[in-house]
Design a protein that fits this description.
Length: 281
């Protein structure tokens, strides 16, 4: 048997949980009664797709009133501006007092400001009217509806109307003990190995089968959970068939380090003594 040195990867198997790539709780931004639910529960929805229709009648009336107030302000300003324009040459000829012209000019500026205020009110009314159509914030698979047609919803309510999750790709949050991570970093720092440039992650599902796609380690949190003494590592996996669902228990096999000059021998060529020390023969 010829023994040679080669780079030897050191894998680690850790427990983890799957998590959605994106999650959005859908909430209303205005208050009102739900008139229609415009999606099928469990279906794929697109970003911007209308999910619920809130009764718009009150907001339509408010927008119409705001538009009428704007038109009235514009009419008042037109009259005030015309009066100020007529007073200006008269004040220059001293046919009227300068105070009369100053008052007319001030009223003209006030009515111009009133137009700006009413335009802002019109825009706010239009925004609220648009909010009566509740859109999907993200694309993904939508869950069950937690409100029915005829239900009353309020702006910024705590309870979500429904939840949308993007399931391709998927995250896997992996827990590693801080002691194991510290040991790894000490070994790497001591020259006993090196960290691969882009760590690949293999996944074992709950039934023991291996997931068909390989993931990539994204990052490790820079802090230790005080309750569990673990550090969370996050990996990203493609999920085109939708096999992975949020909350699944999995086991991740990660190559976190590699020994550049390792020696591999067949398992049958290693004998161990009573103390567990290995001997190659």
């Amino acid at each position: 048997m010829v023994v040679t040195t080669q780079a030897v990867e050191i894998p680690t198997e850790l427990a983890g949980r799957t998590a959605a790539f994106e999650t959005s709780d859908v909430r209303p931004q205005v208050s009102g009664v739900i008139r229609a639910r415009l999606f099928e529960e469990g279906a794929l929805v697109r970003q911007g797709q209308t999910l619920y229709q809130i009764d718009p009648s009150v907001y339509q009336a408010t927008a119409a009133q705001a538009a009428a107030n704007l038109a009235s302000a514009q009419a008042v300003h037109a009259a005030a501006a015309a009066k100020a324009a007529r007073y200006r040459p008269l004040a220059q000829m001293q046919a009227i007092s300068k105070q009369d012209y100053t008052d007319a000019a001030a009223i003209s500026r006030q009515t111009a400001a009133a137009i700006a205020q009413n335009r802002a009110i019109v825009e706010a009314a239009r925004i609220n009217l648009r909010f009566t159509r509740v859109p999907a914030p993200i694309s993904g698979r939508i869950g069950r509806s937690l409100v029915t047609t005829g239900g009353l919803v309020t702006a910024s309510q705590a309870n979500a109307l429904t939840t949308i999750q993007r399931l391709d790709p998927m995250f896997v949050d992996i827990q590693q003990s801080s002691s194991a991570l510290l040991d790894l970093r000490q070994r790497v720092g001591g020259g006993q190995g090196k960290i691969p440039g882009a760590a690949q992650v293999a996944l074992l599902l709950e039934d023991g089968s291996r997931y068909a796609y390989t993931g990539t380690l994204q990052f490790a949190e820079p802090m230790v959970d005080q309750n569990t003494g673990t550090v969370t590592l996050r990996a990203r996996f493609p999920n085109p068939q939708g096999l992975l669902l949020p909350g699944m228990y999995v086991r991740a096999r990660i190559v976190q380090s590699a020994v550049p000059n390792g020696i591999l021998v067949p398992q049958t060529a290693v004998a161990r003594d009573a103390q567990g020390n290995g001997t190659v023969f």
